[in-house]
Structure of LysR family transcriptional regulator:
Amino acid sequence: MSGISPANRKLSQNLVGLCAFDLVARHGNFTGAADALGMSQSAVSQRIKALEQELGVVLFTRIHRGVVLTNEGSRLLNVVGPAMRQMGNSVNALLERKSKPRVRLSADFAFSTFWLLPRLSQLRSELGEEIELQILASQIPPEDDGDDCDISIHVRPLSQMKGDDILLLQERVAAVCSPKFLAANGPITSSKDLLKTQLLSLSRPPSAQWQTWQGWFDALGIVGERSQNYVSFNNYDMVTQAAIAGDGVALGWLGLIDDVMRTGLLVQATDDVVDSFAGYIMSLDRPNSYSGPRRVYDWIAQRAGTKPSSAAKK
């Protein structure tokens, strides 16, 4: 414990006193602070006296039926007050999580928008209100030591599947656009014609592993120079909206944008579909925690019509 500074040692020894000080200052008397702490008025008074002796200053001036802060007390409250409120809010959040289980789910923007959100009301209805669901949309999977997530759904190579991982959607990608764009810029007789067409791109962070236009062309054996620069976005919903608006051709992940294509807002620009050795893989990051994450995990797996990887490999 040699690394603990004298200030930290004093702080730990006087934390209850500082809490009592904050409450007395807020209530303006010992009675209200005593009720909030579940202590007697005399016990709170003793805490304040001990804190004053420890700090070597007078924090309150005693008046009839109450107290007022001294100058030293006001300076201390400016620091202690916000810290106590922040700690109180954090503790309340943890207690609320304990009483109302929370499931934190990390998924990329595309899956969150096009798969989860259309099913969210059904999920909450069938699982009940006792589970608080938090969806953390991120372009990259959470680090193992990063966000405290229960479930993650991101595009990863199939070779990385392990344990109870589930392949929700294998990556199948087509070139899609609006009927209006196709009518104005067609006919597009082959995927190679897309090199001369305005393409809409989803910016990919270095650690992300989903399909890109270059990878799509490479998979089809298409080589050549593009005649136009990409229009790039960092959010797949924006890519899709731009394609619907007729601004260009986008990569469409089949299984995600099926509803949009059924409405006719988007159509395939060519017949080519590229299957990769990757897909949306769902991982249960904390399998031994309470039952809430497992229930959400099983619900998503059932709606996707999939099985755990261990069963699929048999």
